[in-house]
Every structure is written in C-alpha cells, then in structure tokens.
C-alpha cells in the first residue's frame, strides 16, 4: 500500500490541466450499456474507479478497448450476463448505475446492494422505488437486487430527496421505456446534464436536465456515439484550494469556471484574487493568509459536499472562526480527527464543525478515510510544518488523476512511496 510524503511550506505556483470528471464518466460508462453499437467516451481520467467500471463491464462479457489517448470504446454486443457482483460493488458504490441501463435494455439485472460507506449509510431505496414505479419487478435477497421487467413503462417519479446517481439511474432507464417519464425533484448537478447530453447524442429524447424536472420520452433503440466527458469541477476546486492554502497562485486549464460559482464565491470571501476565461481559472492569494469562510453543503447549484473537507482544511489555518454545516451526508467529518492530529482546532457537534484558525499546522502521520477526506489531508500537509505522511492513499487514486505529479508541477514537495 503506497503512502504520500509531503514536506509542507512551499507556496504553490504554476499551471496544470484538469482531467475529465469522475462523477460524469462513471454514469456515462454505465450508460454505454444502452447503446446498440459501439460508444466511444473521450477525456476519460485515469482513475481507479474507472478501472473498476471497466472491470465491471468486462465481467459481464462487454468488450472494452482502452486507448492511450484517454478514450474508452465500449461494445455491448458480446454481453453474456447482467450481474454486478459484490466484490466490485463493495469497492465502488456507483456500480449501482448499471441497474437502470441493464433493466431497460435487457429486461434483467442482478446488482449487489452497495451497503454503507465511510461517509454515511447511503441507501439506494429511491433507485429501486423509481424502477418499480416504471413496472420493474424487484426483489432484494441474499444481498442482491434482483430486477426483471418486460419493457419498462414511462411514469411520473417524484423523488423524496435529491439524489445524483438515483436521478441518473432513472433517467437512463427511462430512455428505453414505453412512454414518457417525468422525474421531479431531480438532481441538477452538471454531471447529470453531461450524462443527459451523452444519452441525447445516442438518440435519447430528454429535456430539462439541469433543472429539477427532467422529461424523457422513451425510444425503441439508442445508437453508439462518440462523446467527450466534461472537466472535473471537484478536481478544479481542490487545486484552487491547494494554491489558496499555501498563499500561492495557480492557473487551471481545460476546466469550466461556470460550474464552480459557489466555490469561487467562497474563495473570493477567503481573500483570493480570481480571474476566469471560457476554459480556465487563475487564482492568486498573493502570499496572504486566507480568511475564514462559512460553508453549508447542499445539492447543486449550492455548495458541493465534495468540497467540504477541502474547505475544512483551508479554515484550519485561516484568520478567524468558521462554521461548516454538512447537510448531504450524515458522517462526512472523518477528516476532522486527522486534522486535529496536525494541530487543528475543530469542534464537531452533529452536522456542524466549528473551526478556529490557527497560525500553523504541524506534520503528523495521518490516515485517509475517503476520497475527499484524503484531499483535505494533502492540503493540510502542504502547509504543515515538517513532513506529513498520508496513509491509505488508495482512496485518493479513486478520484484524483496523478495528484502527486500535478502538485509537483505546481512546486509542491510531495512524493509517493511504498508503505
Ligand atoms: N439517498 C437516499 N436514498 C437513495 C439515494 C440517496 O436516502 O436512494 C440519500 C443519501 O444517503 C444522501 C443523499 O441522499 O444522504 C444524497 O446522496 P446522492 O444519492 O445524491 O449521492 P450519490 O449519488 O450516491 C453522488 C456522487 C458523490 C457525491 C454525491 C452528492 C457519484 C458517483 N457520486 O453520490 O461523490 O458526494 O452525489 O453530490 O456521482 C465523491 O466524488 O467523493 C462522492 C462521494
């Protein structure tokens, strides 16, 4: 198991390219199951979760060709079974995204129940209920969701909570259903819109993606297509914070600033100077210590839960006291205890963390517990006095492409070593 060693104290300065979005490429790869003909997905980041998805498709007999130029071609014509096995689903919850496409296209699916995870219980009841409302016969037994249908039928689905992968699963299922499906209280995340655009490129009839009501008119067949995945807004935000926490400067290319409004607003409040172009963002802290910023997470377009841990790290060394409220997941403060071991002054009560900024953090061995928590520990390591050792970094490899290389390009003193 590898670990990262970070010598803190360097002010970051430089330019890097942002990769394709993890949370868009995963549903899009699942969506290729709907295509009657090869689908080519471009701008695919090299991430462990992508490898797991490729393995999942491979397990079903689907042919997947990976090109070194960041593209993946999927040909479903060789599919042999419709099973997402426990050993893959337990390592990657988003495997649940094959449920809707398999059911809609092949009339059957067996998908392991994901179970809980480090950031909360994360049930999939809304995925199941929506599919049942579309006529699927679903039984949960022996830890698996067993689903069957003749052809799904269009329905009006009112989601009790805003769920990103739930919206994606139901939208994919509805593309091949008989009749019109309306998803109300749909997630508005840019990754939902990217998936909708991919499905539309395959011939799906979808309107309203990006709003809270999505209407899908089912079609008989979808065709293969070529599609470029949108840039990763959370990776973008994480590198902006890496520059901000060190008082440095960064220019991020191949990104989409308009997807980060709430994050950029918070960075301005923290004292960052920001400039944006159509596909780039430049942040300059001009050597200043950040000011504390309050954060309250909520579904898009509000502040993303996937940036909460990174802002917690920023606030540990900021000037002032900040309140962070996590409303999306019930247990997403696992980074707090590790940050405290580096000298952070944080109190947690329920879903609220109160962070009093200190002058400095000190290096310590710390353990990554989930993807974004790992990112926050790396950010803390960049400013801590001494050498921070971040263990269990397989979490970071799930969602950040070559993070130590990108940070090194910005001048960080970071290296990966075998544990
Ligand atoms: N929920 C239910 N029932 C459901 C589905 C969701 O109660 O059937 C609850 C969840 O327990 C949670 C809330 O609804 O409290 C929102 O969860 P959501 O379903 O939106 O999360 P997700 O789809 O499982 C995606 C991202 C996460 C991101 C969240 C929130 C992917 C592959 N994952 O998860 O990304 O945090 O949306 O924006 O898109 C990450 O990248 O680090 C990550 C965890």
Shape: elongated
Number of helices: 14
Compute the average pLDDT. Answer: 96
In which order are the strands of the major sheet placed?
24-25-1-26
Number of strands: 26
| Euclidean distance between termini CA atoms | 5 Å
Task: Note the main sheet.
Answer: 4 strands, mixed
Structural class call reads alpha/beta
Which ligands are bound? uridine-diphosphate-2(N-acetylglucosaminyl) butyric acid
Which assembly state applies to the chains in this document? single chain
Poorly predicted residue ranges:
none
Keywords, please?
419 residues, alpha/beta, four-stranded mixed sheet, 31% helix, 26% strand
Describe what you observe in this structure.
The model has no long low-confidence stretch (mean pLDDT 96). The chain has helices at 22-31, 48-59, 86-89, 99-106, 125-133, 164-174, 190-201, 233-245, 261-269, 308-316, 334-341, 371-383, 394-399, 403-409; strands spanning 2-7, 13-17, 35-36, 39-42, 63-67, 71-75, 83-84, 108-112, 137-141, 144-148, 156-158, 180-184, 205-207, 213-217, 222-223, 226-228, 249-253, 273-276, 280-284, 295-296, 321-325, 345-349, 352-356, 365-367, 387-391, 413-418. The chain is elongated. The strands form seven sheets. Strands 24-25-1-26 form a four-stranded mixed beta sheet, with helices on one face. A four-stranded mixed beta sheet has the order 2-17-19-18, with helices on one face. The protein contains 14 helices and 26 strands. A hairpin with a 2-residue loop joins β22 and β23 (352-356). With 419 residues, the protein is an alpha/beta fold. The structure holds uridine-diphosphate-2(N-acetylglucosaminyl) butyric acid. Uridine-diphosphate-2(N-acetylglucosaminyl) butyric acid binds next to α1, α5, α6 and α12.
């Amino acid at each position: 198991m590898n670990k990262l060693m970070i010598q803190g104290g360097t002010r970051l300065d430089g330019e890097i390219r942002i990769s394709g979005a993890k949370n868009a490429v995963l549903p899009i790869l699942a969506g290729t199951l709907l295509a009657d003909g090869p689908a080519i997905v471009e701008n695919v980041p090299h991430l462990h979760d992508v490898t797991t998805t490729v393995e999942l498709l491979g397990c079903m007999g689907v042919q997947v060709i990976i090109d070194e130029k960041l593209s993946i071609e999927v040909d479903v014509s060789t599919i042999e079974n419709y099973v997402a096995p426990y050993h893959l689903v337990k390592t990657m919850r988003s495997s649940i995204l094959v449920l809707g496409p398999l059911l809609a296209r092949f009339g059957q699916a067996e998908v392991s129940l994901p179970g809980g995870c480090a950031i909360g219980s994360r049930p999939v009841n809304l995925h199941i209920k929506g599919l049942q409302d579309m006529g699927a016969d679903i039984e949960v037994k022996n830890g698996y969701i067993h689903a069957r249908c003749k052809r799904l039928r269009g329905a009006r689905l009112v989601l009790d909570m805003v769920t990103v992968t739930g919206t994606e699963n139901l939208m994919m299922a509805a593309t091949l259903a008989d009749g019109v499906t309306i998803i109300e209280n749909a997630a508005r995340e840019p990754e939902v819109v990217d998936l909708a655009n991919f499905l539309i490129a395959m011939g799906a009839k979808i309107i309203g993606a990006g709003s809270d009501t999505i209407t899908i008119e089912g079609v008989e067949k979808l065709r293969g297509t070529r599609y470029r995945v949108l840039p990763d807004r959370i990776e973008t935000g994480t590198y902006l914070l890496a520059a901000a926490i060190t008082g440095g400067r960064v220019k991020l290319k191949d990104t989409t600033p308009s997807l980060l409004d709430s994050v950029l607003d918070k960075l301005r409040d923290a004292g960052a100077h920001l400039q944006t172009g159509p596909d780039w963002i430049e942040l300059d802290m001009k050597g200043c210590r950040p000011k504390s910023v309050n954060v309250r997470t909520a579904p898009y377009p509000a502040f993303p839960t996937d940036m909460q841990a990174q802002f917690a790290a920023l606030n540990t060394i900021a000037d002032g006291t900040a309140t962070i409220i996590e409303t999306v997941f019930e247990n997403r403060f696992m980074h707090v205890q590790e940050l405290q071991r580096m000298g952070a002054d944080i109190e947690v009560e329920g879903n609220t963390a109160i962070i009093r900024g200190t002058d400095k953090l000190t290096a310590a061995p710390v353990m990554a517990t989930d993807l974004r928590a790992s990112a926050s520990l790396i950010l803390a390591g960049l400013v801590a006095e001494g050498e921070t050792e971040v263990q269990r970094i397989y979490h970071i490899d799930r969602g950040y492409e070559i993070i130590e290389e990108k940070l090194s390009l910005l001048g960080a003193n970071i290296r990966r070593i075998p544990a």
